[in-house]
Amino acid sequence: MIETITDNSWLLTVATFAPLVGVLLLLFAPKDDEKLIKGIGILTAAATFGLGIAVLFAFDHDQAGKLQFFADAKWIEFIHSNYTIGLDGISLPLFVLSSFITFVVMIYTWDNMPDAGNPKPFIALMLILQVGMAGTFMAQDLILFFVFFEVVLLPMYFLIGVWGGERRQYASLKFFLYTMFGSALMLVAFVALFVRTGSESFSMLWLAEHGGLIGDNVQIWIFAGMFVGFAVKVPMFPFHTWLPDAHTQAPTQGSVILAAILLKLGTYGFVRIAIPTLPEGAKAFAPVIGILAVVGIVYGALCCLAQTDMKRLIAFSSVSHMGFTMLGISTLTTFGINAAMFGMVAHGLITGMLFFLCGSIKHRYHTYEIKNLKGMLISMPKLGWILGFCAMASLGLPGLAGFWGEFPAILSAYNPLEEADLSKALFRSLMVIAALGTVFAAAYLLWLYQRTAFGTPDGYVVDDGHGHGHDDDDDHGHAPAGTVLPHAVGAGVNDDPAVHAHAADEHGDGHDDLHDVTPIEWLAWLPLLGLIVVLGVYPQLLFKIFDPAVEGVTQHLRNYFTP
Amino acid sequence: MIADVLAQAADFVRPAIDWHALAPELVLIVGINLVLASDLLLAETKKWVTASLTGFVLLGAAIPLVTLGVNSDDARSLFDGRYVVDDFSLILKALFLLAAYVIVLMSQNELEEGGYYQGEYYVLLLCSVLGMVMMTSSRDLVSVFIALELLSIPAYMLAAWRKRDGRSNEAGVKYYLLGVFASGVLLYGMSLLYGATSSTRLVDIGAALADGDLNGLEIIAVAFVVAGFAFKVSAVPFHTWAPDTYEGAPTPVTAFLSVSSKAAGFVALILVIFLAFPTADGVYGPLVWVLAALTMTIGNVVALRQTNIVRMLAYSSVSQGGFILMPLAFVNSGDAAESVMKAVVVYLLVYAFTNLGAFSVVIAVARKTRSGKISSFGGLFSYSPALAVLMTIFLASLAGIPPLGGWIAKFNAFRAVLDADTGSAYAMAAIAAVNTAIAAAYYLRIMRTIWVDDVPDGDTTPIVTPPPIGAALAICGVGTLVLGVLPGIVMRFADIDDLAGNIFTK
């Protein structure tokens, strides 16, 4: 049984629910005062992040394997569900990451409110979302976990549905129904687990001790229910189809949060709940998860190669990257799960950053079409370089954070958990295919970079009067953009300097609009970029937090499988 | 002969009556007469007083509930165990009174502005509520049936209240004909039951049925009784009256039918299943299983295609009925009995708050748009954000999204089913899980209309919500939120030991 430390448990509760104060303040804020509303958003998010940092420092790093800030208060007595909370090395980084991402997203929103406007509900929803995400990571009771897991759904549905792109309604509904379907089955699995262990408690600690006593076949069935719930969220290969639509249609802020945190709820669920509680189920499903993960890696990469839309490409790259994470988890080893945990944080930072870039590119070019984005290094060198940096990080360049998620995950497949008797031949084959997958990753990212950053700008949509911070100017901007199109395409195809110059001249005044990275963007991005480098150079920073807790999980598995 | 009767009457010894236990019913009876009399005496311009008076009567009837709840630690049994006041009946009486109070709030403006017959309306409403309040305590076939008719007959008339409107007439007639037919089936089943067991007291029937295997007569009797109540709770395939009646009736009456009247049907079903059929699960088990599966699935699938908001809510309430019905199929499997009881009671409470809230929003919005189309909700968020947020809360609760009330209701239902721990229980849970996702689709569609779509006629003057409807919304909104976050406060009321235990020990 994992030991618990109850110091400062109030801090965890406060840090989780703090954003609600901001929501309350927003209720009384006048609707038209955008600056005030955004200010409240940033301040609340900053305070939440500050509390997150406080949690990080109050956490006893020498005992990362224990549940800290542990509290256990009565909640719904009839179903034996308690308000049980706590953080260990597995959940702490994700808990802090969620408040960090919300904070930078809020900063970004200062200048980049989605076109639909109406910041009050937008910011309130993001704050509620933060409560749900942080709550999911701190919950140590299945019902509490489920509540927070679901709290996340509705705000994200509205973020996509109201502030999203043209096909937002389709995308948001698809997102919601997929997740709802998964979580309904997950709930059934939770309750079945509860009933099968004697209807005693929903506490994760308790269930981790008693879940293993359930019969093998029943364990597998219950695991199957959780598998669907979590796999939809990750998303794993056959359940992933909601993701490209949701990501492509979501506003930038939504995409960033979705990629950085929401997807992790699924992988976290596997590590925290499904695997420790149902070892026999985990053993039976490990090959399935491994195979689907590798299929996801390759399939996601191939889809990336076929995309013409930059945001959709990055969305598919998420499918591929989460494949590596799941591969690490499927080995059931300390090494693999550590890699997966690192991969979760790294993917959150890198892909979150890439979605920020997508948003900024859309803001300037009004398109995600890769073929129209030529020559970014010339027109906006700083943005171009940042894109290059993130692409390198994403493809797993050593020295940047992405590497430490991907490479150890592949390596770990060489030796899946000995005691669980998993097929080495299978996992080693998976390892080879996954390694080939990294080549695809390099291919689609470098090709993306070539097509967007290199070459000379061909003047597409230069005329769109969309200055920095001038959201109000939108109205007169869009009509000319349409008229430019034939010219621009012509210029791109025949590449005749004369025609090109002509096009550029005709719409020359627009060059101001392709402004480079703005101060607000720097403010939001620099922490992310910094972390990508720091974690890349010194991964031990994270590994030493994860390792004791992950070791606890795998030790539990080893004990279970050793007769 | 008259002398004989008189002679017998002289011998009649009044049974000991626990007046305290009967106080809620007595307050209602006095109240009904007061409202009726005041309607005769009031000038046409002062008719609004009847509404306020009705509200006070309902609150007055709730006072003894509080004192009873505080006072008694165990159940009070009256009239030879045929009328029982226990925690179960107290919480449901409170539910019916509160629901009726909210409905009075919802009705006020509608009736005043429509020039309908206010006095009569409230009298009939109170009569129906009296029937429901009696239903929760009835432990005898006769009193169950009387309570059922007392609550149904006024409801037939209420459904046809807009008497110059063809659709309201259709609503009333349809409801009446099918309701009477159902009563006939039910009564037939009851008479067979009496014939087979020679008692009308539910526990005696239970004891008689438990004696040896069921014979053909008893099987038919059980099936007929369950089918009779299935009409009342609009379970598929006995649901066909519901959408037309709901759409045609005045909206507050629709809310009343879909919440209170349906809940009363479930109360009756709980009583007969728990007390009279404890060993007949071989008969009602599969029957209820099929009814529940059909009800939730067909209700959902048809709701997906509705364009009228009230009709959609009608089908949604059919499908919610399936969820309430679901655990009742497993009363005798494993150790599910207690969780089944709690599941149904909690579901009824949560569902009442949520559905009444949704109807209140519909009424408030329809006062402006004068339309029942779902599309008329377009852009509600842009001009009436408060109503939009409330409607979102109610719909999300109906969809079962935490931390709103609906989720704990659904969760309890799942838990009760899984407690049964049989193959058919797991199959039922899987069907229900899929249905949860289907239901989310149409609730979300309305939310999308509210938040995303444009205002259909471009008229963005804010909606003025009259104070009574505002009060109704506040009650429902707070109830939905509180029950979701702290469901423990109502869970303890549904205690199965009191329902049956006290009577068995007598």
Please outline the helices and strands.
The complex is a heterodimer of chains A (563) and B (506).
Chain A: H1 9-28, H2 34-58, E1 68-76, E2 81-87, H3 91-109, H4 119-138, H5 142-151, H6 153-163, H7 168-196, H8 204-210, H9 216-233, H10 242-249, H11 252-277, H12 279-306, H13 310-330, H14 334-365, H15 376-379, H16 381-394, H17 401-412, H18 424-453, H19 474-494, H20 497-506, H21 519-537, H22 540-561
Antiparallel strand pairs in A: 1-2
Chain B: H1 2-11, H2 19-41, H3 48-71, E1 76-78, E2 83-85, H4 87-114, H5 118-137, H6 141-159, H7 166-197, H8 202-210, H9 216-232, H10 241-248, H11 251-276, H12 281-304, H13 309-325, H14 337-369, H15 380-383, H16 385-399, H17 405-420, H18 423-451, H19 467-485, H20 488-491, H21 496-505
Antiparallel strand pairs in B: 1-2
- Computed Rg of chain B: 22 Å
Strand content of chain A: under 5%
Nearest-angstrom radius of gyration of chain A?
24 Å
Helix content of chain B: over 70%
Largest interface: A-B, 37 and 37 residues
What is the overall pLDDT average of chain B?
85
| Coarse structural class of chain B | mainly alpha
What is the 3D form of chain A?
globular
Distance between the termini of chain A: 18 Å
Low-pLDDT parts of chain A are: 462-511
Beta-strand proportion of chain B: under 5%
Oligomer: heterodimer
Which sheet architecture does the biggest sheet of chain B show? Answer: 2 strands, antiparallel
Low-confidence segments of chain B, ≥5 residues, pLDDT <50? 500-506
